[in-house]
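Sequence dictates fold. Below is an illustrative record:

_____
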Amino acid sequence: MQVYTGANVVETTEDNTATASRTWKTGLTGWIPPQFGSTYIVSVYIHTAGDAANAANISNKVFVTGSGNNDEWFFDYESGVLNFIGTNLPNGKSFSGNSVYIEGARYVGAYGVGSAAGEDANLGDLTISGTTISTSNSNADIILDPNGTGIVDIDTTLAMQLPKGTTAQRPTSPEAGYLRYNTTNNTVETYNNSAWVSVGDPDTSTVHVDSFSGDGVTTGFTMGGSASTNQLIVTLNGVVQKPTEVYSASGTTLTFTTAPATGDDISVRRFVATVDNSIVLDNDGDTKIQVEESADEDTIRFDAAGTEVMTMTSIVTTAKTPVQFASYTTSARNGLTGVNGMVIYNSTTGKFQGYAGGSWVDLH
């Protein structure tokens, strides 16, 4: 709220499009009307132009009901415009060289629960700024609690942005049902009351279909891939068959208890689990094997405790930390089945040795 009183009264400007001296504009809107209290009734003064500091004096004041000479005035609190509505102008007042001054108060904050551009509004413990809602109190939750059987409905055809952060940035005291996007392992994850688990990734299933035709004799059919009995849905002429009683599977062989009749349409759906092999990592995401850190990189990367320790390409393997070879005594070495290219450390002789051409040789 902004109060205009004393030396801070507002000097108005005459509206020259209206009858002379009848309409005066403050240029300010949103004056607080007397419905909010009689103290908000504006006071009107007529005084020397350009002298607001001395305007608010009882000798300069004109009253809303006039002086008994049919010289009342009306102030529009919303638009900030004063109109002398009586038949006569204020009795005994001259407008020559004078201005009309207004004393009162305006509401200068945001209206409703929203906020004007660049301004904030408060609603309870919430702060609303533009399209952003945040808590006024540090570390407080924002709770959406529909009444009865109502739900929280995000009404959009595009997407909802989940909270995202690294493994290290997970909530320190998670509760069951927490959902976030983990930027360390690039998966959506949820807390199941005991651990963080990935949602829908990396494990998925692919369905493969094999089709055969019965001949009244054959009971065994070769599928296009291995599967267990519980990984199959088998239909005969569109009718789903009962596993173990009607059929079983081992490896790539599907075996019926009784040979399907000649002309029977056999359809076999194999559900095969597929794994996203682009990354294998531990629970906190700092030890991992990656085969595709960037698009079509074709480099296998090994990280341990957050540090890359080795890379492999089709051309070279590069170790970024010391490599420790297997250590054997001469006696233990002789018990090995040597293969050309083997390298060991011989602790008896204190030498690195390699197996080449059918025997062990010192490398230095």
The chain has four domains: 2-106, 203-275, 279-319, 327-362.
